[in-house]
Design brief:
single chain, 2 domains, alpha/beta, 17% strand, eight-stranded mixed sheet, Rossmann fold
């Protein structure tokens, strides 16, 4: 056989195009873990609230599903059924199944075993099972489900194992430091016991966009470190970030540690896209800027948008934008404004400069659309927008000193992103004026006393150091703030006053109150109409400030 042909066949087999890619062989996926894999605090009735996921409350007849879940009283599917919610809740399997069935010709089957409040070191321990003895129970359920496929005379191939767990191990002084080594052993045992030595694993990041991301910061970091220890050393294991996903809003301090409905739907897409990349399937949508919108040699005002969940646009959907009176046109790409972005701490990045338009993770958008449109009508000349966000971060992650959770330290990457954006525009022959950084303060920080108390101080340190590092001592910072959460546990801390004082003491810092936004259902998260209004508020705040005294470089 020709060596080139052999090499191509081997590559195709590696990518999953060869063995079993015949439209008949069932691609089997295993989902396992604790409460966030169960789908705790998701609600089937709420699926219809989120346009990209409409219809997932109904059975998917073309996807097989076998499950076993719970603790003392486990429920199970009693064999294979069409993929569907498990009672009034569901996990990431619903959107995963649909995403794959739309992309692949082969049939899909999902086996799920999940149990809330369990540990890898004990319950899921393959060598010395304790507690609920989930490893042998899960192995038995997987093997029984596969045997049923044999009886049904359906050829199959185990394609991937989706794992989401670790919240309970982080509370044990004994279990926490061993999480990485325990996880590595867990993967090895599954490969051995299923007789699939090349089985790929997809390890979901713990839910950090919550109160736990603040008061359990060290614990969460320890588990992430253990997970990354495995995925960085095992070529068939991949770390799946989730901190950009939505999180259910709870009571009291305002946050919970479960994803809830929208987050579960998004997490399933994360798993699906990761698998599709593994087999060489393209999942990203190209958004090229077909023609450079600025005359050669002309000056450009660059605005940098930065922040957390609402700057990303967690719950603002393009499908709703298209029906919003007077604003439907914002859903179309605006080729007159160059747009560059780094979202979710690097989870999604633009390919160079793109037209300004919806570029979120799941048909979502941020305030940049209405911000750019409003400024375009102000006769400011050429404007470009660069956006840097990480909705799983807190304000202290943006400080020059950072925190001990080193994988969340954003100051360096943020400054580098700004410098890169300016340099790219200069390289095209344009004098560039960094017209301002527009930062929407951390919504989550407003819900936890120690963070709300320090928000102003942390932000001040970031502003001061950014001016030094960018060589712009009068660089304008526009601090945008929505109404802080109203809760008796934090109301004695007047963060609005703190931010106002920060602006009063600095002639180049401006405090923008976005307090008139349309009503929103959640305590913290701005929805579609509010996102459009937020962008307009930001644009008005930027336009109404004193004109810059410095000239473009």
């Amino acid at each position: 056989m020709n060596r080139l042909v052999l090499a191509v066949l081997l590559l195709m087999q590696t990518l999953g195009f060869c063995a079993g890619a015949d439209g008949k062989t069932v691609r089997v996926f295993i989902f396992a873990g604790q409460s966030n894999m169960v789908g705790t605090h998701s609600r089937v009735a709420d699926i219809r609230r989120f346009p990209p996921f409409a219809g997932l409350d109904q059975p998917q007849e073309n996807v097989l599903f076998s499950y076993k879940m719970g603790r003392e009283q486990m429920t199970n599917s009693k064999g294979w059924i069409p993929l569907q919610p498990t009672g009034d809740f569901f996990g990431p399997e619903l959107s995963f199944g649909r995403q794959l069935s739309q992309q692949l010709d082969d049939p899909i089957a999902i086996i799920k075993i999940a149990s809330g409040g369990t540990t890898l070191a004990e319950d899921w321990n393959p060598d010395s099972p304790g507690g609920f003895k989930l490893y042998p129970l899960a192995l038995e359920h997987v093997q029984a489900s596969l045997a049923e496929l044999d009886r049904m005379k359906k050829p199959y191939r185990i394609e991937g194992f989706m794992w989401h767990q670790g919240e309970n191990d982080m509370f044990s002084r004994e279990f926490k430091p061993k999480y990485g080594s325990n996880l590595r052993n867990f993967l090895a045992c599954w490969r051995r016991d299923l007789k699939v030595p090349d089985l790929r694993f997809y390890i979901g990041e713990l839910c950090t966009k919550t109160i736990w991301g603040m008061d359990n910061r060290e614990n969460m970091y320890a588990i992430r470190t253990g997970q990354k220890f495995v995925t960085e050393s095992d070529p068939r294991a991949e770390y799946i970030p989730t901190s950009h996903d939505a999180v259910e809003i709870g009571g009291d301090g305002g946050l919970h540690y479960h994803y809830g409905t929208l987050g579960q739907l998004e997490h399933g897409v994360n798993y699906a896209d990761a698998y599709l990349r593994t087999i060489g399937k393209k999942v990203a949508t190209e958004r090229p800027l077909k023609a450079w919108p600025y005359e050669k040699g002309s000056s450009i005002k660059l605005f940098v948008l930065a922040g957390h969940r609402n700057m990303e646009g967690e719950r603002a959907f393009t499908q709703e934008l298209k029906t919003l009176d007077g604003h439907a046109g914002l859903a179309d790409d605006n080729s007159k404004i160059a747009f560059k972005y780094n979202l979710g701490g690097g989870f999604k990045k633009s390919k160079g400069w793109e037209p300004l338009g919806p570029a979120g993770f799941y048909d979502t958008f941020g305030p940049e659309l209405s911000f750019g449109h409003a400024l375009q009508g102000k006769n400011l000349g050429n404007i470009a927008i660069a956006k840097f966000t990480h909705s799983g971060s807190q304000i202290n992650d943006w400080t020059p000193q950072g925190t001990s959770a080193k994988d969340r330290n954003l100051y360096g990457p943020f400054i580098a992103f700004i410098q890169e954006s300016m340099q790219e525009l200069r390289a095209k022959g344009h004098p560039v004026e960094l017209a301002g950084i527009v930062y929407h303060v951390g919504e989550n920080d407003m819900s936890f006393g120690p963070y709300r108390r320090n928000a102003g101080k942390w932000l001040q340190s970031t502003i001061a150091q950014s001016r030094k590092d960018l060589g712009l001592p009068s660089l304008k910072w526009f601090i945008s703030q929505q109404p802080p959460i109203d809760d008796k546990s934090v109301n004695q801390l007047d963060v609005t006053q703190d931010l106002a004082e920060l602006a009063r003491g600095d002639a180049s810092t401006f405090h923008l109150k976005a307090f008139d936004l349309p009503p929103q259902r959640e305590k913290l998260v701005i929805t579609t109409a509010g996102m459009v209004k937020l962008g307009e508020v930001l644009a008005q705040g930027v336009f109404s400030t004193p004109k810059p005294t410095s000239k473009p470089d």
